[in-house]
Amino acid sequence: MSEVEETLKRITSHKGVIGVIIVSNEGIPIRTNLDAAETQQYAALITQLAAKTRSCVRDLDPQNDLTFLRIRSKKHEIMVAPDKDFILIVIQNPNAE
């Protein structure tokens, strides 16, 4: 099993994790464990949000960069870890017992 597969397996084994998506910086899904429609929706919207957030961070301080973004709603928590080549998106239920 590749290092990527092992890491994805480790992340998905955490309590409450609903899905993991790896997308390119252009928003193209590379790996996912969600259905196609949900994957496309999260990939497109979160890629745009990460780009806008990165832009805001750089506007405030040109020497700075976005390293992690956490969004919490009533139903889900979305964690976004942008990298230079891809974006890791993890969706979880924060109320999982």
Spatial shape: globular
Work out the oligomeric state of the chains in this entry: single chain
Order of helices and strands: HEEHEEE
Which consecutive residue ranges, at least 5 long each, have pLDDT under 50?
none
* Termini Cα gap: 30 Å
Strand order of the largest sheet: 2-1-5-4-3
Strand proportion:
25-35%
The computed structural class is: alpha+beta
Q: What integer value in Å does the Rg equal?
A: 14 Å
Determine the mean pLDDT: 92
How does the major sheet shape up? 5 strands, antiparallel
Helical coverage, percent range: 25-40%
SS element count, helices: 2
The number of E-state strands comes to 5
Helix-strand blueprint:
Layout: H1 3-12, E1 17-24, E2 29-32, H2 36-60, E3 69-72, E4 77-82, E5 86-92
Antiparallel strand pairs: 1-2, 1-5, 3-4, 4-5
Word description of this protein:
This protein is α+β, with helices and mostly antiparallel strands. Helices cover 36% and strands 30% of the residues. The chain contains two helices and five strands; from the N terminus they run H-E-E-H-E-E-E. The chain has helices at 3-12, 36-60; strands at 17-24, 29-32, 69-72, 77-82, 86-92. Strands 2-1-5-4-3 form a five-stranded antiparallel beta sheet, with helices on both faces. It is globular, with a radius of gyration of 14 Å. The mean pLDDT is 92.
